[in-house]
Design goal:
The protein is built from 11 helices and 9 strands. The chain is of the alpha/beta class. It starts with 5 loop residues before the first strand and ends with a helix. The mean pLDDT is 90.
Amino acid sequence: MNKFTLTCLIPFYNESARCVSVLRQLTTTAEIDRFICVDDGSTDNTTRLVQTTFPQVKIIVLPENRGKSAAIQAGLEEVTTTHTLLFDADMHDFSVDEVEAGIQAVRNNRGIDLLIFQQKNDPVLSKVLNTDILFSGERIGKTAALRAACKQKMTGYFLELAMNHFFFSQQYVVRCMPLHASNYMKLQKWPIQTTLKKSWQLFLLLCSGQFWQQRQQLRRL
């Protein structure tokens, strides 16, 4: 069995100091061997801030904004470790200890193909709908399996559901562990037009048959 190695992959688009804050926390742990950030066509100073503060972090710059799915796909092509930790650049107030506990769980049980961090600080409605798991962007997976999952056609919020569809419908072992963390609200990051567009996309996703099917599949995990 190959030695367990781990890359943290963080996509970002105009996250500025938020991305730096996430890296400042995650780089305190010795559990992560390598960091890769993917700049999804940002128009702000995020890349410069990351390069200046964390010269050890590899940065991939996409020429234009193509969405989180494309950024993750591009990043995974550069990963050489056995496992990958996917982490959003806009997380805050998260527990590094809980992240380390998740890494240790996967390290100690190599039969786990995907570990999803359940967002314990999400609102009650999110927990009722199980979006605290199904839409969680914080995941640890076997790199080869993640690459295969991400070869599916997907955009926007469909990234997490596409991953779920791949791992839930195949003979893979999926586990969940808690992560107390918070996301910035959409209006704190984007203009109102973008916020409304993304909120509408999310609403359509919540109405999709795939989403409700995956809620049922969660009961088997």
